[in-house]
């Protein structure tokens, strides 16, 4: 079964019907059909929430949170192993700390990261990326 890690970019693209929304939607449908496993680091889940909260208020943030809660997305806690890998990526690549967690989770789960965030370009040799 194909494994995917979602980041805040992919979640927001889907929620706001931006470029890549159809690709993310197709991945969500695969997960609903038990044809894909989806993972999301709690750090990136929080990032999606705060961006929606900042840009659209509490109602939008809660709408997005509740929308994604309907899908079979496993939210993964930031344990010591994941945090150390994220710290390593942050130290040696020009990516945000939150993005480092998405990359670390993709490596840890041997999954494909779903994103359109160009910050991940430098990690293409480290992890699999599905560009949306």
What can you tell me about this protein's structure?
By secondary structure, the protein is α/β, with parallel strands linked by helices. It has one domain: Rossmann fold. It is built from five helices and five strands, in the order E-H-H-E-H-E-H-H-E-E. A five-stranded parallel β-sheet has the order 3-2-1-4-5, with helices on both faces. Helix 3 links the parallel strand 2 and strand 3. The chain is globular, with a radius of gyration of 14 Å. The mean pLDDT is 97.
| Rg of Cα set | 14 Å
Determine and state the CATH class. Answer: Alpha Beta
Query: What is the rounded distance between the termini?
Result: 20 Å
Discrete helix count: 5
CATH architecture descriptor text? 3-Layer(aba) Sandwich
What global shape is seen? globular
Task: State the total count of DSSP E strands.
Answer: 5
Largest sheet: 5 strands, parallel
The third-level CATH topology is Rossmann fold
Low-confidence stretches: none
Helical content stands at 55-70%
Q: What is the string of helix and strand elements?
A: EHHEHEHHEE
* Beta-strand fraction estimate: 15-25%
Spatial ordering of strands, largest sheet: 3-2-1-4-5
Q: Give the class from helix and strand content and strand pairing.
A: alpha/beta
Oligomer: single chain
CATH-defined superfamily:
5'-nuclease
What's the average pLDDT? Answer: 97
Count of individual domains = 1
């Amino acid at each position: 079964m194909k494994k995917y890690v979602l980041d805040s970019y992919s979640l927001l693209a889907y929620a706001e019907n931006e470029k890549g929304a159809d690709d993310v939607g197709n991945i969500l449908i695969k997960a609903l059909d038990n044809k894909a496993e989806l993972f999301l680091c709690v750090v990136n889940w929080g990032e999606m929430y705060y961006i929606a909260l900042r840009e659209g208020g509490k109602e939008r943030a809660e709408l997005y949170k509740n929308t994604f809660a309907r899908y079979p997305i496993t939210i993964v806690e930031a344990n010591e192993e994941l945090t150390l890998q994220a710290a390593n990526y942050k130290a040696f690549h020009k990516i945000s700390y939150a993005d480092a967690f998405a990359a670390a989770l993709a490596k840890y789960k041997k999954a494909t990261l779903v994103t359109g965030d160009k910050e991940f370009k430098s990690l293409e040799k480290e992890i699999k990326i599905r560009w949306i």
